[in-house]
Structure formats: C-alpha cells, structure tokens
Amino acid sequence: MMKKNICNLLAIILLSVTLTSCAQSEKPASAVDSSTSNRTESGSSESDDTTSGDVIVLKIAHVDNDTSPYQVGLERYAEELSRLTNGKVTGKVYSGSILGNDRELTEGMALGTTDIGVASSAMLESFIPDMAVLNAPFMFNSPEHAAKMIDGEVGEHFEKELESLDFHTIGWMSSGMRNVFSTRPIQTVDDFKNLKIRTMQNNMHMRTFELLGAQAVPMDTNEQFTALQQGTIDANENATCNALNQHYYEVIKHITNTGHVFGFIAVGISTKTLESIPEEYRSAIFEAGKVMEEVERSQLEADNVQAEEELKKLGVTFYEIDREALKEKIAPVYEEFSANMPEDLLKKVRDLA
User: Fold this and answer.
1) Cα separation of 203 and 336, whole Å?
2) Could you count the other beta carbons within 10 Å of the beta carbon of residue 138?
3) Pairing with 119, which of 160, 233, 267, 300 sits 20 to 30 Å away (CA)?
4) Phi, psi at residue 182, to the nearest 5°?
C-alpha cells in the first residue's frame, strides 16, 4: 500500500513539472523583451536613437518620383556614404513627397524632424531672399554656366545662409533648364496670353509668366497631373525629362524649349541629425555629396536627351521660340525684384558666363 502511495506521489510531481515547463515555453508575445521596439531609422523619429543595430540609417526625402535623376543621385549618395563609413552610416531614400514637400522638409530641419531633405532654390527664396539671384529668368546661359556658379564662391555664400535654417548643405543637384509643357502650342510670345500655367510658389517665377501674359497658378508637384487632366491649368514647366518621368505626355502634347529658368536643388542635413552622428563619420556626410552631384547632374543630362526622343515617339511636338523676345518681355522683373538681387552677387554670376 505504501509503495502504491509513493508511486502516485511521484506521478503527481512529474505531471506538475511537465505542466510548468510547458507554461514557460508558451510565454505570450507581450512578454517578449521590447527594449528595441522603439528603435527607428532616423534621429527625426520618436526617440533620439539614429541607429538600426550598429548602423545609422538616415531618412533621405525628396518630392520627385522614384525614376527621377534625384532618386538616382540620392541612392548613389547613400551607397557612397556607406562605403566611406565602412557600412556604419547609410541612408534610405523616400520619394514622391512621402515625408513632405520641400517646404515641409526644410522647416523640418529646424524642428529636427528631417534627417536629409531636398529643396529647390525657388522655394528657399522665401526664407533667403537673395536667392532670387539663382531664380531670375534667363540668368544662366547653359548648365555649365550654372554649375560653375553654384560650385564656387556664390554657392558657398548661399550655403552659409542656409545654415541659419539648420540646413547644412551636402551638395547641389539640378533640375536643369526648365521648359514649358502645354496642352496647346506655344510658338511665340503672344501664345502665352491667358495661358494658365503651374509654377512653383515663387513670386519672381509667377511674375515672369504674368509679364508674358499668362496666368500663374502655384501648386505642389504632386497636384500637377490631375490639374492638367481636369483643365485647371493649361501648362506646367520643368526639365524635359519630367514630362516623361511624371507621365505628363498623357495630357500635354506640346513642349516649348524656353529654357527660361535654371533649377538648383539643395540637399541638406539638419543640425540635430548631423550632431547625432559620431564625429569620425561627419566628414563623410559631405564627401559623399560630391559623388551625388556628379551622378545626378549626368543622369539629368542623359535623361533629357533620351526623354525628347521618347516623347516625340509618343506624339509630343517640340518647338523653338525666340528667347530674345521673351527676355525683352520679362525685363521689368529685374527692376521689380532688385531689392533681393544684390549687385555684387549679380556681377559674380554674370562674370562666370
């Protein structure tokens, strides 16, 4: 009898151990260590941690789509940054205004919510008035003239001014010479009369088209296609490759090679993000920018040539126009905006032509 009781007791003990073991192995997900659950890809996130494991992954944001020269240049930047830091710092590119338009990205520099952002000189003029020099119509004779200017003393001047926005310039990409895309032919100055054309939110650009007799309609990049479809606007303007990349050719069938403005695109890192990166890697942030500039500018040039060929096949007609007649018509804009265009800066730009 005693032997039977001992056997029963041993069986109970064994069953208890087994059940305890099973309970421990089936710990619910909520009990799993969550010490890394708030880690993010960027210093502009919920915490100040800019790392993913031991790798710092910066969010790089721009407004164009993921087939644009911007995307190509920025992806190459992330690769070069990773190479220079032996994989310790890299970036992830966010296209199509996913993280905000260029104004929101720029404002995010001061707020510490942007890591690396892209902003046009046309928009930046609202923060830095003498950037009007970069945005003046027919200021630059060629992409080479523009590059010589922005890569030299004048570019350094604006880079120092951008620091007041907590925007530390990594480099300058380009959107190139801007041309007019329209739903009706634009072959002479008179053809601009009553044309509703999308422009960037830039007073000088808007006034330029008003002097040509057009109606300037400022709007964000991602609103243009629908506006063209619905007839809210008759035209927009940008580098030729954008007519292909953004599928504007589905709506517009005419492109006029006006070359009225050259587009400068600043790429910057915020003070907060820069200071969160270990000192030994900070120089690489700017060194990689040189590769980005070269890649993006070359890609833009190649894309513009290829796009014109493709667009012609898709039924788009290209026109040349009398640029001297356009210059004469818009000449008053220089007087109207003279307060924002210091003579010394104008002279430095013109001397490089």
Assistant:
1) 11
2) 19
3) 233
4) -145, 160
Tokens of 347: 């002279």
- Annotate 11-53 with three-state secondary structure: HHHHHHHHHHHHHHHCCCHHHCCCCCCCCCCCCCCCCCCCEEC
For residue 230, the cross-strand partners are none
d(CA 32, CA 347): 66
Phi then psi for residue 13, to 5 deg, are -65, -45
Which tokens belong to 248? 């504007």
Name the one residue in this structure whose structure tokens are 């929101």: 104
Q: Show pLDDT as tens, one digit a residue, over the chain (353 residues).
A: 434 443 443 343 333 433 333 333 332 222 222 332 222 343 444 334 445 568 999 999 999 999 999 999 999 999 999 999 999 999 999 999 999 999 999 999 999 999 999 999 999 999 999 999 999 999 999 999 999 999 999 999 999 999 999 999 999 999 999 999 999 999 999 999 999 999 998 999 999 999 999 999 999 888 999 999 999 999 999 999 999 999 999 999 999 999 999 999 999 999 999 999 999 999 999 999 999 999 999 999 999 999 999 999 999 999 999 999 999 999 999 999 999 999 999 999 999 98
